[in-house]
Amino acid sequence: MRKLWSAPRVTHHGRFYRFDDVTIEPRPARGPLDVWIGGRTEIALKRVARYGDGWFPSFITAGELRAGMAQLTAFAAARGRAIDPGEAGVLLL
Q1: Mean pLDDT across 34-38
Q2: Minimal CA–CA distance to 6: which of 36, 31, 43?
Q3: What residues have CB less than 8 Å from 38, skipping those under 6 apart?
Q4: Rounded Cα distance, 83 and 72, in Å
Q5: What angle do CA 83, 85, 87 make, to 5 degrees?
Q6: Which of 10, 62, 67, 93 lies most in the core, judged by the most C-beta atoms within 10 Å?
Q7: What's the rounded Cα separation, in Å, for the pair 93 and 59?
């Protein structure tokens, strides 16, 4: 998606998806959008640390959010990344 949001024509040959000369319009006026990833399992947090800009878990407690953010910060740091704590939303229990 980041490629499609950034360029007029995109070709991608990845492990799971392949496409040639694809476009989407209208593209975001201010460049690529942030990608928020949901989920509350460890694998979901690792996915956010690897690919995401923000985290959006659902139906968790404030304590679980705090613990998840700490875990996410550690996973992101291990990948040389930082996730801005302001890039999170939550549906609390």
Answers
A1: 95
A2: 31
A3: 44, 55, 56, 57, 58
A4: 8
A5: 75
A6: 10
A7: 5
Q: Which residue has the tokens 């404030």?
A: 62
Contact between 57 and 90 under an 8 Å Cβ cutoff? The reply is yes
| One-letter amino acid for residue 40 of the chain | R
For 41-65, what is each residue's pLDDT tens digit?
A: 999 999 999 999 999 999 999 999 9
Cβ burial of 72 (10 Å; 0-12, 13-18, 19+) is buried
Per-residue pLDDT band for 32 (boundaries 50, 70, 90) equals confident
The residue ranges of DSSP E strands in the chain, in sequence order, are: 10-13, 18-22, 36-38, 54-56, 58-60, 91-92
